[in-house]
Design brief:
Rossmann fold; 15% strand; 378 residues; 2 domains; 7-stranded parallel β-sheet; alpha/beta; globular; 42% helix
């Protein structure tokens, strides 16, 4: 069996890019894997890992790539199982042929949070998702919450949907940091000396950052010690982020809010480890890696009680309704003020994330490949 994987974003810093890279790297190292791995649509000049063949069939246009270049590569390379990793990457208009299709649906953001995407993406997502879901021989979702979202729209898909959690790279994310490394990170990202509260993620509407800023302001109002803390909002700038800056300005928080932009991969663990608490008040997530990465680094986590987040963090984090500004401020004060609580959350978090690994993700994914191949008569 030849396994083809959509590799357009392999090596990239987006969520799907990190997912693709981590999954493929883990698949390569599974001792039980005997099948050929082929990445489609990657830069053939770069070969970041051994054990994978790269086939260049690139196109800048997503729909053209999925329906012209990808089917051509699937057919000419004799691929038996093709895995589309980005919600909409299966060939929608091209004949399917003998290949078996696996589709990963990470979330239903364009339907559940439509204001966060363009009208074109929203329109195509709604038009294509049902057809693609029925075209797939197996559908992987990142959480039970996303599974329920999908079943709410397409209940007949239930036999084909399987939850496969994403993993944590435990070789990168663990609770240790040297003082010199911490100072280096602060200088690089212009974080003042002193304690900080951390958020990591794309700066976009569904992350609910204006309410985090309001909660931070409220924390400073209700707790004298809160005036010593900085709030670091780390991550690439997305779209519709004007509210973040306007709220920070209106609340006179500019001096205490640091927005360093995208964080380099090698710096991220140290940034987590230096935080007093990690706050992730997102309105909707199909999975949500940052809270688990923070836990792996030994940082107590406060997150939302919506979508997949309670499912992932279990009892190791404090969950708050995303629009409850007072509740979020109170949760931050509680964690920062209570050393025993903070230490308990730290230990629970480290234990919780042990169940998430990319090896486990890869092993479950390989099992799905094998199942659809056998079902197809392979």
């Amino acid at each position: 069996m030849k396994i083809g994987i959509d590799g357009r974003l392999f090596g990239g810093q987006t969520g799907i890019g990190r997912y693709t890279t981590s999954l493929v790297t883990a698949l390569v190292h599974l001792p039980e894997r005997k099948d050929d791995l082929i990445l489609l649509g990657t830069n053939t000049k770069a070969r970041p890992i051994d054990g994978v063949r790269f086939i260049g069939c690139e196109s800048k246009h997503r729909i053209v790539w999925s329906n012209l270049h990808a089917p051509y590569c699937i057919r000419t390379q004799g691929i038996g199982v093709y895995h589309a990793v980005d919600n909409l990457g299966l060939p929608l208009f091209a004949p399917k042929g003998d290949a078996r299709y696996v589709l990963t649906v990470h979330d239903l953001v364009p339907l559940r949070f439509p204001s966060s995407v363009s009208w074109k993406h929203r329109w195509y997502f709604r038009l294509a998702l049902g057809r693609l879901a029925h075209l797939a021989d197996a559908i992987m979702v990142d959480s039970e919450a996303t599974r329920q979202d999908l079943l709410g729209m397409y209940p007949r898909l239930e036999p084909r949907i399987q939850v496969v959690y994403l993993g944590i790279d435990h070789k990168r994310f663990f609770p240790t940091i040297g003082e010199s490394r911490g100072d280096e990170i602060r200088r690089k990202y212009q974080i003042h000396h002193g304690p900080y509260i951390l958020f990591v993620g794309v700066l976009e509407p569904k992350k609910n950052l204006p309410n985090l800023l309001r909660a931070f302001r409220r924390l400073r109002e209700i707790w004298r010690e809160g005036r010593h803390y900085q709030l670091v909002l780390a991550g690439p700038r997305g779209w519709m982020i004007e509210d973040i800056f306007s709220v920070a300005q209106e609340a006179s928080l500019q001096e205490w809010v640091v927005i360093p932009g995208a964080i380099e991969d090698e710096d991220l663990p140290a940034l987590y480890c230096g935080a007093e608490v990690f706050v992730f008040p997102s309105i909707y997530e199909g999975f949500g890696l940052p809270p688990l990465e923070a836990m792996a680094c030994g940082v107590p986590v406060i997150t939302s009680n919506t979508s997949s987040l309670p499912e992932l963090v279990g009892d190791a984090a404090i969950t708050v309704a995303p629009y409850d500004v007072e509740g979020l401020a109170a949760a931050m004060r509680r964690v920062l003020e209570d050393m025993a609580l903070r230490e308990g959350m730290r230990q629970k978090g480290i234990e919780r994330v042990k169940s998430f690994s990319w090896e486990k993700t890869a092993r479950q994914t390989l099992k799905i490949y094998e199942e659809v191949w056998v079902e197809g008569g392979g």
